[in-house]
Amino acid sequence: MGKRKTQRKNAVMLDSDDDNSSVNSSSTLRSDGMLVSCTEEVEYNKDTLLDEAVDALFEKRGSTREKALAVIIDAFNSNLPHQFVETKFATLLHRCLNCIKKGSSKEISLASRTIGLLALTVGPGDNAQEILEESISPLSLAFKSGSESSKTASLLDCLAVITFVGGNDQDETEKSMQIMWQLVQTKLGSNIITVKPSAAVITAVVSAWSFLLTTMDVWRLSPKLWLEYITYLSSLLGKDDRSVRIAAGEALALIFEMGSLEKFAAEARSFSDGLISQGNKSKEGFSHKLGLKGKILNQVRDLSAEAGGKGSAKKDLNNQRNLFKDVLEFLEYGYSPETSMNIGGNSLQTSTWSQLIQLNFLKRFLGGGFTKHILDNGFLQDVFGFTPKRRNLLGSEHISNSEKRMYKSPNSALNKARTLLLNKQRMLSEVRNIGQFAVNVGDEY
């Protein structure tokens, strides 16, 4: 055994250069090459699986397409398959749109989520713009094809995300927001039969609408529209469903943060500058707005201290109280809530309602894939001003839990490559020690 070990050490010494730094360099390069090769093999297998899933979207059986969409969603959550997207972007988009046109509610939900993930992966640019342009019509038709809450919520999330990423101007964003708003505030006509939206749909509409509102210029919207929005959202604060109240409270805080009150104040100044002659109707409108703000303030104050009712979940109640305490502090003193979350040893912070709403929406949409995207998705990093530290796959600094699991698996290709590298490094270290020992012995004699 000792002889074989000595022969192995001698073989390494014969293969190496006299310069230890050269040995280190060449061995590291070979090992790094092996790691890259293993990584590429893993990525190749992932892309092959994605290719097969896209092919399955052409199948006639709906359950087969649903399974394929689930595989694609999982891949987009655990990885950002840019190479796959470059080659299959158009095919994936149009197969998903076909699923939305002809599929079941479950298939529509899965396809909607896939399109949203596709937009986030490609980031702003021509592809994201194409996603928005090609999807608007199918999504609008899908809203009218049924009233299942889960399907509608998925369609809303999809429309919000693709508009957020692919909208080149505010007209496009405003169009998407109007599509959303019509689901809860339909303009009644003589031949229109409306269905009262469920609490889940109202929550989804307000959440998606607020998410897009964070990107809008407040001064583009007329005071009439602001009044319509605020009046409706104020009415939602009195609804029985707690999720509706919370979504409405966040939306109102955002509206006030964006300066709608300043627009109303500007109207008041115009009255005092001699425009009162337009009649009492304008003055009454302004008084109504001031009264509405006072009403909202009282509603927020009550909700921040609401006692738990029968069957009220304590966690949900605490979430409501905490939110409306923040809204109340903002309305009374102008302080926005500040948040901070640790992601892979990096801190992501928010200091405005706009940032908080964007963060909460994208965290919910991405689910378990949020950490992966925020660490590797340049677009999301730009959105939140988040700059992660560089992570070293071979070191211990800032390794994600998924990477740690990959290393711990004895069958992992990355783990095998890492083991080989460490073994070689140990061998080289032993060689250097033997050489140093031989030098020392020669000095003694």
Kindly, what is the distance between the CA atoms of the first and last residues, rounded to a whole number of angstroms? 30 Å
Strand order of the largest sheet: 1-2
Show unreliable segments.
Answer: 1-44, 188-193, 271-277, 392-422, 429-445
Given helix and strand content, the structural type is mainly alpha
What's the number of helices? 19
Q: How many DSSP E strands?
A: 2
Oligomeric state of this protein: single chain
SSE arrangement, N to C? HHHHHHHHHHHHHHEEHHHHH
Strand content: under 5%
- Give Rg in angstroms: 29 Å
Largest sheet: 2 strands, antiparallel
Structure description:
The protein has 445 residues and is an all-alpha fold. Among the domains are: 57-194; 217-335, no CATH class. Helix content is 74%, strand content 2%. It contains 19 helices and 2 strands. It has a two-stranded antiparallel sheet with strand order 1-2. Helix 2 runs parallel beside helix 4, helix 7 packs antiparallel against helix 8 (170-181) and helix 10 packs parallel to helix 13. The longest helix is centred in the first third of the chain and has 37 residues, at 20-56. It is globular, with a radius of gyration of 29 Å.
In a few lines, what is going on in this structure?
The chain is mainly alpha-helical and 445 residues long. It has helices spanning 2-15, 20-56, 62-78, 82-102, 105-122, 126-144, 149-166, 170-181, 199-213, 223-236, 242-258, 260-272, 280-304, 314-333, 353-366, 370-376, 378-384, 401-408, 413-444; strands at residues 339-343, 346-350. It starts with a helix and ends with a helix.
